[in-house]
Structure formats: structure tokens, C-alpha cells
Design brief:
Helix content: 25-40%
Largest sheet: 4 strands, antiparallel
Oligomer: single chain
Number of strands: 7
Strand content: 15-25%
Order of helices and strands: HEHHHEEEEEEH
CATH topology of the largest domain: PH-domain like
Strand order of the largest sheet: 1-2-3-4
Number of helices: 5
Structural class: alpha+beta
CATH class of the largest domain: Mainly Beta
Length: 196
């Protein structure tokens, strides 16, 4: 499917076995259970105070007072942050997902981020220490290649607004055929280790 994307990255004798991308639809993750209520409250609060500062709300005599531009400026920033956290982040995540490509070869696992410059992560398949999968009921899920840092540390916070933030562990995120890809990678790793 994405063979041309990885053509220049293949080693001599390397064969593509699977290619894919994250599913671009909105997929809620565990941390969204905490993030969405907080961001909804933040967005409501910021909208309310911006409306008050613009004199759109309040008693009639309040609407005749001069608008404080300094306050409006800061409330506008607060409003934009609230809107981004509530729904804008999903648009950014959709754009990110359209520029991420995954591949499994007979020698390596490849993860390509193409956000205007190519950033390729290549893991030799025989040196993957741990393969961890998380599969949702619809078959979509994530496969992590390695042990993530302990949650709650500064570089791997327990709650993240963007599930695709780099956590130090390469992963195939939000792929549709999670179980099949997991079996493929595990099988290739076992064969590579047996022949080593």
C-alpha cells in the first residue's frame, strides 16, 4: 500500500511485509476520560469571560463602559487555548496521523514521520525487547515496541492531551488490523532470534 514511501529506506535484501497508517478518525484514549471534562470546563469558562470582557453579557449599564483591551487580549488567548484543547487538538492529531507511516519488513520495524522533513525510526526486529498490544473492541489499537517509562514521570506524564506525543517507545498507534500486525511482528521476531 505504501511501498513507494519506504522504497528509499529499505536495506539490501529487505522485503516489505506490511505497511499502514494510523486510522484518521477521532479515537478516544484512556487519558481522554480525564482531559475532555477538564477542557470542556476550561472552554466554557474562557468563552464566558471573553463574552463578559467584550460586554456581550452583563447589565445594560455595564455594556456602555469602555472595553478593557488588555483584559480582552488575555481572555482571547485563554479562549483560544480552551478551544484548541476541546476540539482543535483533534484536527491537529488528524493532520499528524496523515503524515505517519508504518512498515514491517523481514528485518526491521519502520516508523516514518513526514511532517515536512522525514524522520525515520528503524528497529531491528531481532532486538525488540518487548511487544505490547492494546486492542479495542473494533480491532483498532496500538502496538508498542519496548517498555514505556513509568507513567507519571516528567517525560511520560500520566495524562497527555495528544496520545501521539513521543514517549520514548516506538509504536504503531491507532492501526486497524492490530492483532494481525502483532502476530506478524512477533512471528518475524521469533524467526530472527531463532536464526541468530
Amino acid at each position: 500500500m505504501f511501498t513507494q514511501v519506504f522504497k528509499a529506506d529499505l536495506l539490501p535484501g529487505e522485503i516489505l511485509l506490511w505497511t499502514g497508517q494510523p486510522n484518521t478518525r477521532v479515537i478516544l484514549h484512556k487519558q481522554d476520560t480525564y482531559v475532555i471534562p477538564f477542557t470542556a470546563l476550561l472552554a466554557f469558562h474562557s468563552t464566558l469571560w471573553l463574552a463578559v470582557d467584550l460586554h456581550l453579557l452583563g447589565p445594560p449599564e455595564y455594556r456602555e463602559m469602555a472595553i478593557n483591551l488588555y483584559s480582552v487580549f488575555w481572555q482571547s488567548i485563554y479562549f483560544l487555548v480552551g478551544q484548541y484543547l476541546l476540539w482543535g487538538r483533534f484536527l491537529v492529531l488528524r493532520w499528524k496521523k496523515k503524515h505517519i507511516y508504518y512498515a514491517v519488513t523481514n528485518k526491521r520495524v519502520l516508523i516514518l514521520h513526514d511532517y515536512g522533513h522525514r524522520e525515520l525510526v528503524a528497529l531491528p526486529i531481532d532486538s525488540i525487547p518487548l511487544i505490547k498490544k492494546t486492542v479495542r473492541a473494533d480491532g483498532n489499537g496500538t502496538i508498542r515496541f519496548g517498555r514505556p517509562p513509568e507513567e507519571g514521570t516528567w517525560h511520560y506524564p500520566r495524562i497527555r492531551v495528544d496520545a501521539f506525543q513521543k514517549s520514548g517507545v516506538p509504536a504503531f498507534g491507532d492501526i486497524d488490523d492490530t492483532e494481525q500486525v502483532y502476530q506478524l511482528v512477533a512471528g518475524q521476531r521469533d524467526r530472527a532470534i531463532a536464526h541468530a
